[in-house]
Design goal:
Elements (H helix, E strand, L loop, with lengths): L19 H9 L7 H9 L4 H10 L11 H8 L6 H9 L2 H16 L1 H12 L7 H10 L6 H9 L8 H9 L9
Length: 181
C-alpha cells in the first residue's frame, strides 16, 4: 500500500513521514481492529488519524480493546514515544473526551431494538422470574402505573410538597379512594 494513498497521511506535516509506518500497520491489520468502523466515522467527521484512532479505541469496552493499554496504543499504533501525547491532547481539547462519551451513548442507542426485543421475549413468558420484565413492559406502555403514583395523581397532590403526616394519610386510604377536600 502506498503511503500517499493512506487515509489521514499527509507527508507535508512535519514528522508525519516518520509515523507513516504506524499508520500503514494500522490499515494492514484493519480486519483485526475492533474499533475500525468508529475510526472511519471519526475520520469522516474531520478528526486527524491519531486522534480518531484514540477516540475509537477509548470508546471500546476495556476487555475488547486492541491494543490492551493506552501506552501500547501510543507506541504500537500511533507511532508515539509514549502515551503522554494523548494525555496532552485530552487536556488541550475537551472535545476528545466528549466524543468518546458520545460514541458510548451511540452504542447504547444501537442496541435499543435488541434490548426491547429481549424485554418482550422475557415479559411474554409465564415464568415467575419474568415478573420484573412484565412490570417494566407494562409501565413503558403506560398500561400500569405504580399504585402510589396513581393515588397521588388522582388526588392532584404533589408528593414533594406534602408533610410526612399527609403522606401517611394518603398511604392509609383504602384502594381507589381519593380525598377531594
Amino acid at each position: 500500500m502506498d503511503e500517499l494513498t493512506l487515509p489521514g497521511f499527509d507527508d507535508e506535516v512535519p514528522g508525519q513521514d516518520s509515523h507513516g509506518e504506524a499508520l500503514r500497520d494500522l490499515f494492514e491489520k484493519r480486519s483485526d481492529v475492533p474499533w475500525m468502523v468508529d475510526y472511519h466515522t471519526l475520520r469522516d467527521e474531520g478528526w486527524d488519524w491519531r486522534k480518531a484512532a484514540y477516540i475509537a479505541w477509548a470508546a471500546m469496552p476495556v476487555d475488547g480493546r486492541w491494543p490492551a493499554t493506552q501506552e501500547a496504543l501510543a507506541r504500537q499504533v500511533l507511532g508515539l514515544n509514549s502515551s503522554r501525547s494523548i494525555r496532552g491532547w485530552r487536556q488541550k481539547n475537551p472535545a476528545i473526551d466528549e466524543r468518546v462519551a458520545s460514541l458510548l451513548v451511540e452504542s447504547l442507542m444501537d442496541a435499543r431494538a435488541d434490548v426491547i426485543d429481549a424485554l418482550k421475549a422475557v415479559a411474554s413468558t409465564h415464568a415467575a422470574a419474568a415478573h420484573r420484565d412484565r412490570k417494566l413492559f407494562l409501565e413503558m406502555t403506560q398500561l400500569y402505573k405504580p399504585e402510589m403514583a396513581l393515588t397521588l395523581n388522582k388526588a392532584g397532590e404533589d408528593p414533594r410538597e406534602l408533610s410526612d403526616e399527609e403522606l401517611r394519610a394518603i398511604a392509609a386510604r383504602p384502594r381507589g379512594e381519593v380525598d377531594e377536600s
